[in-house]
Structure formats: structure tokens, C-alpha cells
């Protein structure tokens, strides 16, 4: 259902997804859409006005808690990776979130109609494995032009003076035609921690980031704009971020893909994770303090750049 019986557009639809899990569909007038599961507050689909899927979802994704959904945009919180006391990437991606009944107002007034406010509050079970009190509010918005915006607001709700320290990532799986034909711009010459080498620090060499083997890197002090250029599809994804200094780039390649049970053997060719993150230096909040971290995605035809796949030009032509 995308319109009411009187023909009015339904911007936000509450429905059921795989295995009856609650799902929210956001739609915009031009025909673009996004789907969000309350399980993990996970975006699992983002389509442009032609109905083309822009996010990768594994052909073997398991929609059964407590397993996280493989694909889309999992939220890594309160721990990115294995550094810490929790399971890999923390627990936000395998908790049921609820629709926020009373979201505090956003400082900027927008005319967007396709958005949903979700909240994750720590349960007593969570406090047992991670002794902290927090409130995590997430607004997911589909802009009229099809841009997908995620804004996280995390507050330390401790009443006993305890600091809240966490790491974070929007673990975005971009759908690409063939990862070996993809180039990432914006991370050249930066320092990174290599997850494949015990997080040893290196400096990126060369003028373009391309892919021909497994990669698992945490780029540090990254710019607020990163472009992912899919040469074969002539599409450029532009990732803009705020409050998230790092950027993780991950592709398991063939061997590791085979060892991941919920990833198809050849799926690695059609995905690339570029993740707006805060990993190297954890965010630390005093009681009552709030942190905000935002990621905005847009997808533009690379042909806008008159034959040159230059993301700067793609941005100017928006
Ligand atoms: C990436 C990490 O962000 O996520 C990788 O850098 C990890 O090290 C990958 O393998 C997938 O993690 P998971 O827990 O979803 O299989």
C-alpha cells in the first residue's frame, strides 16, 4: 500500500517483514523508498526512484534473532569490532528497538515527511553485560530527492556519576555491480589501522583505493565526504558524515566469504562496506551529556560528470 483509498501518499507504513518481524517502509513522492526493521533498527533496503536497490542484502541473510541481519545498515554500538568486553560490534544490532513515542525536537526544522524515530533503552539484561545507562535515539529520514539520512543521539542517563564510553559505526553495505571495478575517493594518503594485521597503523599510498583482495581497514581522521564509484553501473554513492571521524572499509573477498554462514559464496563481489565510524578514540559522555552522529547517503549517476567519474563534479551537479 503506497497510497490511501483517497489517493494520498503514505510516507510511513508500518508492516511485517521476513518471519513477521515488524518493518517500516518510508516512501517519497518520486518513488524512492527505504525499509527499516525494528530488530536492530536496521535499514535493509534503500531504492531510488527507478526501484533499483542501492544497499546490499545477503542472499543468505537470516532474519531470526539473536542473529544480526547481514546487509543494509547494521548499527555497531556500544562497541565496534572485538575490542572490548562485548560480542563483536556490540548489541544494538540484535535488540528490538521501539518507535520513539516522544522524540525531543531536532534543532533544524525540515519539511521531510518520510521519517521514523526509534529508540533503544538499556534493559536490565543489557546492564548486566554492560554496566551503563543510556538512551539511544535514531531518526531515519528519506529526503524528497531520495537521500537517506541517519541521525543518532546517544545520551548518558547515569544517575551515579558514571561516564559513558563507546565506539560506534553505521556498518553500511553498498550494493555494487563488481567490487573489483569500484573506486573509493576521499581516503587516499590517510593513516589507517589494519584489522588484518592486529590493528597496526599504516599510511595509504597511491592515488585511488581499489579492490583486488580482502580488506578490513579503519581509516583515521577522514573527511566529511567520501565517494564510492561503481564504474560498471556508472553510479556514485556520496557518503557525508558528521561526528564520526573514522571510516571502516571492509570486504571479506572469496575465502572469508565462504566462512561466513549467512553470506553467499559470490556475494562479496556485489558488496562493499564503507562505514562512518568512531573507533580509534571512544566517545566519552558525562552524565546528562548527549552525542550526535550523522550519516547521509546519496546516489547519483556518474554520467552526470560528463564522462569523468569525479565525485566532486557529481556533488556540484546535484
Ligand atoms: C567489519 C569489521 O566492520 O565488519 C570486520 O571491520 C568484520 O572485521 C565485519 O569481519 C563483519 O562483522 P560481522 O560481525 O557482521 O560478521
Automatic annotation (TrEMBL):
One of its GO terms (biological process) is carbohydrate metabolic process. Signal peptide: none annotated. GO terms for cellular component: cytoplasm. Its EC number is 5.1.3.15. Belongs to the glucose-6-phosphate 1-epimerase family. Transmembrane segments: none annotated. It catalyses: alpha-D-glucose 6-phosphate = beta-D-glucose 6-phosphate. Residues 295-318 are annotated as: Disordered. The active site is at 171, 275. It is an enzyme of class 5 (isomerase). PANTHER family: APOSPORY-ASSOCIATED PROTEIN C-RELATED, GLUCOSE-6-PHOSPHATE 1-EPIMERASE. The keyword Isomerase applies. Keywords: Isomerase. It comes from Carpinus fangiana. Substrate binds at residues 70, 88, 93. This is glucose-6-phosphate 1-epimerase.
